[in-house]
Structures
1.
Amino acid sequence: MTAQYIVNGLTMGLIYALIAIGYSLVFGILRMINMAHGAVYAFGAHMILMFVTWNLGAIPAVILSIILTGGLLVAYDRSILAILRKKKAPGIAALITTIGFSYILTNGLQIAFGTEIKSFPALLGDKMIQIGNVKFAFSQVYILVVSILLLVGLTLMINKTKIGLAMRAVEQNSRAADLMGINAKAVISVTFFLSGMSAVIAALLLASYYQTVYPTMGAMIGLKGFSASVLGGIGSLYGAAVGGIILGLAESLTVQFLSGAYRDAVAFILLFLILIIRPNGLFGKAKISKV
Amino acid sequence: MDKRDKIVWLVVLVLLVAFPAVGLSRYLQRVSSLIFIYMILALSLNIITGYMGQVSLGHAAFYAIGAYTSSLLSEHFGWNFLLTCLCAVLMTGFIGWLFSIPTMKLSGTYLAIITMGFGEIVKVLIINWESLTHGTYGVQRIARPEFFGVEMKTTNNGMYYLCLVFVVLTVLFCIAIERSKLGRTLRAIKDDPMAASLMGIELSHYKRLAFTISTALAGAAGALYAHLSGYIDANSFNSDVSMMILSIVIFGGMGSIKGMVLGAAILVSFPEVFRFVAEYRFVVYGLILILMMVFRTDGLLGGNSKRPYTFPRFVKVKEGEVKSDGASGGQ
Amino acid sequence: MALLEVSNVSKQFGGLAAVSEVNFHVDQGEIISVIGPNGAGKTTIFNLLTGVYDVTEGKIVFNGEEIQNKKVQYIVNAGIARTFQNIRLFKNMRTIENVMIGFHQNTKYNTFDSTFRTPRFRKYEREAHEKAVEILNSLGFGKYIHSYAGNLPYGEQRKLEIARAMATGAKLLLLDEPAAGMNPQESEELLQFIKELQDKGFTIILIEHDMSVVMNISDRIYVLDHGRMIADGLPEEIANNQMVVEAYLGKSEDDAAD
């Protein structure tokens, strides 16, 4: 029985990790939490659904959704956040605009698609597999493989490629990076795009697994993904992955040993504890405040 | 508060007292009472967000605690509203104080997030602690407040005036805070916590105090709401409510008491007035947050006053000693 | 007896020594300057004196009492207040309010008093307002009383920071580069201003790069380099000290004089 819960927990954990990475990427560069990330996830899911119902085929639908969602985030950054950065507005201002953006997205989806729960095609197949006592859906295998590939890919990209180097440079000191000829604007846009992409892929995986989408689907998972990223140390990519997996397992074990009712509280209790005990998370870096 | 402010407040108050004379429908009464309740909530969040500069995204949780405390006490013991409301204020303030102890080292984004998490935890608790809260059934048929045998209803304008009295008290209380050491200290902490601390201000003490006072006020609003609507459940206090309160504070102008009152009046009434936008109202709230942050951080009425500083009446500053050059001097 | 006695104080960040075995003392009524190249550890010393940082080793005795590693509030109360290298006024508060924040610890009423406007509230508020006006007037700030601190001219902002520090009831003022960014005329004014403070009975430690200010005003000078005190003495002695000239003055006389 426990093995079953661990498999389920791991699956959810990887999804949380994908969401967490979306937060961490943006936080790493802008020191800002994109509170609209959950809504962006829901937006991505609805885009896939829309393109699939237009009979574009699964793969083009996903690619188009990634472009559209990533593009939306880039546009938001270029139009709103860029102004705030220029004005040197306090960090809390950017945070508040992302809350506003989140409400616009969610409400927009409700108006365009209706508030009800819609069924989502099983794009990743709906077969079940059984190994010993442990039963799992074929789509869970996808979740496992795709999210690990994506996590590894993103980490490699940031650590080994030129654009990754530019991202790290901007993260350290955006002005200096600018002087070194790195186009900070472009780097920020790429980051937002990647953040949107990871949200859409998470949406694809989870929506195919549950086979449902609805406009507020991102609220809870957004908060949980955020908790996971803080747990691992926000800004750190493997921290996000570890945080996601810990959260997924913790939830799953809570369901098994305690009660399903408290499943949603686990993330927040972990968040509470980590922020109080170790605000920089498991893998985050501490900083010294200067006078 | 200078003379002009006093006149404006008095005129508004007279109008509000006289308003039911035109014969308000039950619906209008309900909307006005709701506006009053949101005024209290906005004034309450204003202490944390407007004065101290910290964002809470979970204010609905404290609103909920107040509502549940008052309605459950009234249900089980049949106590008078004043007593259950007082208990709600104390209970909510106490929980706000408890909440602020572990979180007082956090600020900015982290504090915002943890308040949001707290909001969700409270919601989960309300739904699952059935023996106390009746779970998803909610608390039903909550008694109307009664004073000297007169039931406060919407039909006799009772709820309207009760809420109005609470608003007036809250406004007076907030003015008192603004014009005292506490108000100055919180604004100093907002401007520069490090410098404030080196002036001898104990940051954690003031953060706790601000949280306690703010949440206690939200508790009063909760008690009013419970007895106004007669029914509450976890959904009455979801994250949309927190969002609404924050929108009012930002829209009205952080730190401005007048702004909270005006902001609540506009934002609560507009979906009712413009029925056709009711469906889009969260788009509108979202736009308000974004546009205000980009173009007008001070909201409708926030920001630094252009008028001279008003000395308290009991302070005698010799004529000629202080030249009034308005607030702009030195530019 | 010295008002402030710093003995063998060291501060390490991680393994890095910011300040090593520093000794100095300040007598009542003196103006002491601490000079040294950037990164020598001057501001770190202020942070140690005001309790922002804990010392790794050593003793700080102020007014006969050990204050190392005490809380910031405790030290303010004991009578040490400071200004900052980058002005840290409460920009969105008025000049008079900035000064009243300085009275914070001596304004002894609580929220109950202010809500019900008790006699205690009136007494302390009256006192705070009157004293603030008095301090501002005595420093020639009268016309700026209503202004928001962020709107004041640069030089006035520096002075207001000092006024705010005075309001805490401090005996010892720590001024961190008060002349930074001032033109010669402004720094000349500041010089007078600081001398007046001395006449009012304040004891002052100054961190300053502007040598015209330092040489004109200091009773004694300490020179810090790489976290160590390398010299101390009267202004003339320091100006002629070969070690100091090498470590600091000689290397970049132009920089030091601007």
2.
Amino acid sequence: MEIEIISFGQITEFINNQKIEVDGITDTDAFKQYLEDRFPALKGLKYKLALNKNIVQQNTEITNQATIAIMPPFSGG
Amino acid sequence: MSAERYNRQIILKGFGEEAQQKLLRAKVLVIGAGGLGCPALQYLAAAGIGHIGIVDDDTISLSNLHRQILFTTADIGKLKAEVAGKRLQEMNPQIGIIRHPIRLQKNNILDILSRYDYILDGTDNFESRYLVNDACSLLNKPLIFAAVSSFEGQLAVFNAPDHSTLAPGTNYRDLFPEAPDKGEIPNCAENGVIGVLPGILGTMAAAETIKLITKIGQPLTNKILNYNLLTQEQYIINISHGNGYTLPKTVDDFLNMDYQDTSEAPQGYIEIDASELVKLQQLESTILIDVRERHEVPVLDKQIYTQVPMSEFAAFLNKDFYQKQVVLICQHGIRSVAAAEAMQEKYGDAKKIYSLKGGIVKWRDYFLKS
């Protein structure tokens, strides 16, 4: 299954925008676990996922060619 | 009201005299007269918002001027709320400008926000962001949110029902239920910001405010826009209601929340000024630690200041050292507080922990001559 990853803010420093090929990942909980295993720097950070431009508030099914955005909070002004 | 002043927007199709009257009747509070607040204030005042409040307790410094474009070199040292208020009044004498040169805290924010219809958050720290979000939620005030980091920005409208579906508004905690830990997300003072970025986001926030008031277009209710200056790309994400967070439902709940107001005494460690640094430095059992990254300037004398960048601080905490007093220093005294908290947690009363308030920038003269 192909998933497009889009990242924002300081998360772009270790996760580039990219298309990845993954097997066995069918929902957002599993995808989050996959991300944190592959990019351990993500573990200590506050961030939110958006699946196909919708904020993920609970475990949600992922289908082929989904886009998942990884967004950290900004406070600067 | 002089119709001529606003003629070019009144003649716009879909705007007209009616929308102009709505602006005139609106009361908008802009929190923070900084990089976001300055351009927002300028456009809101020019557009003819009838009552504009400005909250900022800070004074103007030289390093503000590349992005805080209401201020001039001659204004350095003056209160932002006062200077911004005076300048906006000169720009548009037909509107009311109310200056609030104070810091918003739990005990004053509800009183001030309740006097306005729309709140624009242009603050620069998470404590204020959550304080403002929760106060707006409690008072049911629409909140226009803008924030920047490096070359990117975020823009959203919270607490306003959706224009078409009338679905109840979401708020900042639907995105990020809890504030990040201190030091987790770098701020502008530490990370830098290009002046035009908050200019763009602040202007977009003013546009959202005008859209909400005049009911034109589709404001970013229940949406967050991510903006990238380097690519000019925008990415809009739909926000739905989250769970697992607590919004204060009553004033008492609100007053019991912990926003880490700077007025509340810090736990354990002590924030000091340069004169106290000098005294501590003379004690043999004091270690001075510069927690800035290695590329940052000015470079301090390595004989006097041990360099332990924040990125290496966790490893340093595992090492033993004999000194009993620890003075932590960084550029603006923000990261050094995070380092002080971490040290305090590890050592408790075993060592005395200090953080230089205002950092090297504030005490530049002292660091340059030593």
